[in-house]
């Protein structure tokens, strides 16, 4: 679906505050309420706007450690990817799973309350995942930029 300058203007306002009503978004974007509503509906139907979500700051809930685990799998095993992904999804502290092409097959983003909690997770849950040939752990020190907004 092609979008025009009015759609981009509307999307910029929507990204800034998705909780605004169509009327408020229309006012901020400088278009009529009816036009804003039609455009938002069209962009939702086409999948450009995928929906609203609540973002919870896990740090505020006492999770102070984030570790990025890069996994290389033993790909000689049938369904290695599917098996590891299915089991990793069952670990509540795994908040993101990404797949890659290249030497690294998967990246797991793991949160923990503290290092002792992370060590327990690593020993009991992560190391028990099947088909792992190699693990590299990268501990996050700081988040310097975190922005999901697109440059529209």
UniProtKB/TrEMBL annotation:
Residues 3-64 form the HTH asnC-type domain. One of its GO terms (biological process) is response to amino acid. InterPro entries: AsnC-type_HTH_dom (IPR000485), Dimeric_a/b-barrel (IPR011008), Tscrpt_reg_AsnC-like (IPR019888), Tscrpt_reg_AsnC/Lrp_C (IPR019887), WH-like_DNA-bd_sf (IPR036388), WH_DNA-bd_sf (IPR036390). The keyword Transcription regulation applies. SMART domains: HTH_ASNC. GO terms for molecular function: sequence-specific DNA binding. It comes from the Bacteria. This is Lrp/AsnC family transcriptional regulator. It comes from Meridianimarinicoccus aquatilis.
């Amino acid at each position: 679906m092609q979008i025009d300058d009015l759609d981009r203007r509307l999307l910029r306002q929507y990204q800034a505050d998705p909780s605004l009503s169509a009327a408020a978004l229309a006012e901020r974007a400088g278009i009529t309420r009816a036009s804003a509503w039609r455009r938002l509906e069209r962009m939702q139907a086409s999948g450009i706007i995928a929906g609203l979500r609540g973002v919870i700051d896990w740090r505020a809930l006492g999770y102070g450690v984030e570790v990025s685990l890069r996994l290389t799998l033993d790909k000689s095993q049938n369904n290695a990817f599917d098996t590891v992904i299915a089991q990793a999804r069952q670990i509540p502290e795994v908040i993101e799973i990404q797949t890659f092409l290249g030497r690294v097959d998967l990246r797991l983003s793991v949160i923990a309350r503290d290092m002792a909690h992370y060590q327990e997770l690593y020993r009991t849950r992560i190391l028990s995942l099947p088909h792992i040939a190699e693990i590299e752990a990268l501990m996050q020190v700081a988040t310097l930029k975190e922005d999901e907004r697109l440059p529209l």
